[in-house]
Structure formats: structure tokens, C-alpha cells
Write a structure and sequence with these properties.
Layout (H helix, E strand, L loop, with lengths): L7 E5 L5 H8 L3 E7 L2 H18 L3 H8 L5 H6 L3 H4 L2 E3 L7 H12 L6 E3 L25 H12 L3 E6 L2 H4 L4 H12 L2 E9 L10 E9 L19 H4 L10 E5 L7 H6 L9 E5 L5 H17 L61 H7 L12 H10 L3 H14 L1
Parallel strand pairs: 1-2, 1-4, 2-3, 4-5
Antiparallel strand pairs: 5-7, 6-7, 8-9
Helix pairs in contact: 1-15
Length: 410
């Protein structure tokens, strides 16, 4: 039998690499990841080291870094330089695009690019920010034009473009219409669906628009992505993690429970994972702790979400009692999490841990698990930077399902 074809990808606006990770797990080979955020780029580089060292049976080096036994620099110099160079730390703009093309061509070494994946920053389309007039002039709403330039340059067979549901309604649907026309002009037929990550085994309700484009002459339509809702609940991804109080940091700690079916089948935890990393929680002040306590009890006992105006007057220290009344929200331990977003970097009030004993917001590792990142996935940067990367990411399990269905079509 002939050698199985490996398909190549370029990941644009890559973030921490949730989309890329799912595609890598499905057997795609990344030629380049392009990302402007420095911390996210280090996360991508560290992950590239993981994949390379795993392929060589040298994971002890990777775990040595995670345990703090070797420096990041030592880790990066332990893999070939072209592995580290696949991460291009640049803001995609008219000024940088030619130089970025050149770097990617060098990395490709004559290989063709099968797919371009990635979604431009979606904050500009998010419904949360819709009341802000400046959305109309936000340059981020036109980043799909830059995306198109990569399609023109590398002429992949197709592309996968991810964004928030607000993309459909932004500027009364004008942006989305323009985007489709633009990709059509570049020679790609565009198909799209609204997908919920929960339908693909992720323990989180998270709706996203997925656009799939194909060259006109080989249009495969929207892939048939098999759904597989899990019967597991959020408590199934919390039960084996060490008890963590507010403000506590456990960078490396043993698991306190056995691997369960969901963790194993999802690939979040494997039998080769000896310890849990980055179980980092943020501190909580006395007043917020009393609000968390009140919110957890109300949710546990009555299944009722607390509105800010429902709180006892002495707890209500903020003047705004007219909007964002659901700003304190407990994650449903007996169901799915609500959508994890990058705001988690600013405060954790919207993601209160369901267990009364710990009385805190979710930790870095807990958030990563809700986004279906494997436990051996290591995030770089400050605690806020980690939360931001996790909140912005495409859930890995969902990305893998999309990748597998695209691979079938290719």
C-alpha cells in the first residue's frame, strides 16, 4: 500500500492553537501558525515542542520544562529550529503581509498548502459589544480581507473560518454578505453552519459560525460532521483535580482521583499524564466571597441564577444595578458550562466554581478542560494571559471533529 497522504495547514490568527491542536490530532501537519500575541506565540511554540518530542519518544524533556527543571530556552533549543520557526509572531496587516508570505514559503519548502484555518478576532462581532457605535469602524471587522490575501497567495484547496454568531447580524448582515462575495471573487464557494461545541463532546454550550470554503472546481459543500453529545457533566472534569482554595497556585500536583471514561475518551487526560499542571486560581475578596457563597447556595438549592439586584443590600457595592445583572454566575456542575469567553482574564465572577467548599472562580486548568484542551497542553504567560488564550480558543474536541470530516472529503 502507498504512503498515506498528509495534509498541510496554515493557521491564521492562531491564538493558543485550539483549532490547530484539533487539526494536528486529526493528522494534519501545520506549516505555520500566525499570531500577534506574544504569550500565545510562546504557548504555540511550547506545544510544537510537545508534538515533536512525543514523535521522538523524548517527552521527559517536555515534562522537565513543565516541572521547572529546565528553562523554556533549553526546551526550545532541544528541538530543530524549523519547529520553533513555524510560529510567526506578527500582526497581520498590509505592512507585514509580504514578509509573512516569504517566511511561510521558506517553511513550506515547496510543499503545497492544502487548507488555511483560523478565525480573525471576533470581539468586534460579539453581541456584547453591539451597543458600541465604534463597531462600525472597528478595523477588526475587515480582517477577513487579510485572510483572503493568504488564499490568493497560497491557493489552498479550501479553508475553515471560525467566528461568533454575531458575524451574521453585524451591520445588519452587511459584513457577512460582503465576506461571502469577497471569497467568491477569490474563487471559493462558501458554506456555513452554526455549530454548538456541546454537540461534539465538549462540556460547554458554545455556539460558533463555521465557514468552509472550497475552490469552485472542487466544491465538497459543508462537511458532514458527526455529532456526539456526551452524557458527562462538568463535575466529571472537576472530580479528579486537587482541592484548590481561592488564590492558590498548584503548578504541578498529583491527581486526587482515577481517570474517568469521559476524560479518557475525550483525550483530556491520558494514562501517560502523571500530574496536573497550571491549577491556578485567582484570589477573591471578602465581599465577593460572600456573593459567591450566596450564588452557589441559591443555584444548588433552587437551581436559580442570582441577579445582582437579588443580593442582600450589604453585598451590593457596585453602583450599576441596571445592566449586566447576571454578572455573578455559577458553572453548572451537573450539566454543561455556559460559554467560556476571554473576559475570564479580567475577573471570574461569571464562572464561579460549583463547589461551596472552595468558594472561588474556576482555575486555569478547569477552564482549559471545559474547552477540551488536553492536560498536557501548557499555556504561557501570566494568569490573565492564560485565561484570555483559553477563552478565545476553539474547543479542541470540536476542532478535531471538523478536521476529521474535512479529511474525509479531501
Amino acid at each position: 500500500m502507498g504512503k498515506k497522504k498528509t495534509y498541510t495547514i496554515i493557521d491564521l490568527f492562531a491564538g493558543a492553537g485550539g483549532l490547530s491542536e484539533g487539526f494536528s490530532q486529526a493528522g494534519f501537519v501545520p506549516i505555520a501558525h500566525v499570531e500577534m500575541d506574544n504569550d500565545a506565540c510562546n504557548t504555540l511554540r511550547t506545544r510544537c515542542c510537545y508534538h515533536y518530542l512525543r514523535s521522538k519518544g523524548q517527552l521527559e524533556l517536555y515534562y522537565g520544562y513543565i516541572k521547572g527543571e529546565i528553562s523554556r530556552q533549553t526546551l526550545y533549543t532541544s528541538v530543530p529550529i524549523n519547529i520553533i520557526n513555524t510560529v510567526i509572531n506578527v500582526e497581520i496587516s498590509n505592512d507585514t503581509i509580504d514578509c509573512t508570505f516569504e517566511k511561510i514559503r521558506k517553511l513550506a519548502k515547496g510543499r503545497s498548502v492544502d487548507l488555511i484555518i483560523g478565525g480573525p478576532p471576533c470581539q468586534a462581532y460579539s453581541l456584547l459589544g453591539r451597543h458600541r457605535k465604534e463597531m462600525e469602524d472597528d478595523p477588526r471587522t475587515l480582517l477577513y480581507l487579510q485572510y483572503g490575501k493568504f488564499l490568493e497567495e497560497f491557493k489552498p484547496k479550501g479553508f475553515v473560518f471560525e467566528n461568533v454568531p454575531g458575524l451574521l447580524s453585524a451591520k445588519k448582515g452587511e459584513h457577512f454578505k460582503n465576506l461571502q462575495v469577497y471569497f467568491k471573487e477569490l474563487g471559493y464557494n462558501v458554506h456555513f453552519q452554526m455549530l454548538n461545541a456541546a454537540d461534539y463532546g465538549v462540556l460547554q454550550n458554545r455556539k460558533r459560525i463555521i465557514l468552509v470554503g472550497w475552490k469552485n472546481e472542487q466544491d465538497h459543500g459543508f462537511p458532514n460532521i458527526s455529532t456526539c453529545r456526551s452524557e458527562a457533566v462538568v463535575n466529571n472534569i472537576l472530580s479528579d483535580l486537587p482541592i484548590l482554595k481561592a488564590g492558590e497556585v498548584k503548578n504541578v500536583a498529583p491527581y486526587i482521583g482515577q481517570i474517568n471514561t469521559y476524560l479518557e475518551e475525550s483525550g483530556i487526560r491520558s494514562n501517560e499524564d502523571m500530574f496536573v499542571t497550571q491549577n491556578i486560581s485567582r484570589p477573591v475578596n471578602e465581599n465577593d466571597a460572600s456573593i459567591y457563597d450566596y450564588a452557589i447556595r441559591t443555584w444548588s438549592n433552587k437551581r436559580v441564577r442570582v441577579k445582582y439586584t437579588d443580593l442582600p443590600p450589604k453585598m451590593r457595592t457596585q453602583k450599576n444595578e441596571d445592566s449586566f445583572l447576571d454578572r455573578f454566575k455559577v458553572v453548572d456542575g451537573n450539566g454543561l458550562s455556559h460559554t467560556i469567553v476571554a473576559h475570564l482574564a479580567k475577573d471570574g465572577h461569571y464562572y464561579i466554581h460549583p463547589c461551596l467548599e472552595v468558594c472561588r472562580s474556576i482555575s486555569v486548568r478547569e477552564a482549559a478542560r471545559m474547552q477540551s484542551f488536553p492536560d498536557n497542553f501548557y499555556f504561557e504567560g501570566s494568569r490573565s494571559a492564560m485565561f484570555k488564550q483559553i477563552g478565545n480558543a476553539v474547543p479542541v474536541l470540536m476542532a478535531k471533529k471538523i478536521a476529521e470530516s474535512i479529511k474525509d472529503l479531501l
